[in-house]
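Example record for the data management plan.
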Amino acid sequence: QLIVNKNSLKNIARNFQDYFKLPITHDDVWALKIAASNYYKSTYQHIFKKIAYGHFIHADETKVKLQKDSGFVWVFSNMEEVFYLYKSTREAAFLHELLGDFNGVLITDFYSGYDSLKCKQQKCLAHLIRDLNNTLQKNPLDDELKNIVIRFGSLLRKIIATIDRFGLKTNFMKKHKKEVKKFFILLEKQTLTSISAELFKKRMIKYKSELFLFLDYDNIPWNNNNAEHAVKYFAKYRMLVNGRIAQSGL
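Corresponding structural encoding:
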């Protein structure tokens, strides 16, 4: 009732009384929540271990407002499990300890907090596409930016066509590595006058080794959609409790 149907503790207590004639109070339901939290602690830890010892992790974070302060809920997922973790800041230093034994590929957006991690990383190309399209919509006459968008879009469409046909198998995707190399050679040679185009050029070159890492590994997604879906699930809950819940309740 609390997690799935988003019922408040007060309403849950009232339902116990109305439906079952049980004299359950708000405090009783709160105690049940604490008991459930303790009961599932080992399950919670087991879920993270399954994720941390897998061959890739989707990661994302989102802000939440508590009664007295605010913080961030971090999300880590694979194709089956999701692990949520609260931290008081967006500082990513804790990830070094949390993911210290992780040997797979970390799939994230372009938040710079992930940059210092030593594991292999794949940047979410869906994020990059959205950023390119949004910037181009605001600057429709920027031909230099439009040229980057067109060339990058053409390259990615060819790769996705291969994925749609053969799946995320490097044996089939590796043929695109020459096209990727050519894209970056042309991009690095370009002299740009557009501020927006220059910013994207620098961003793409900075993450050159992380934009198309998935071409070298089997079954590594090129986007961070799983983490984004998990964030949306929490966001629905946040709409009901934002600013009204303590860290312990969260």
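Summary line stored alongside the record: The chain has a mean pLDDT of 94.
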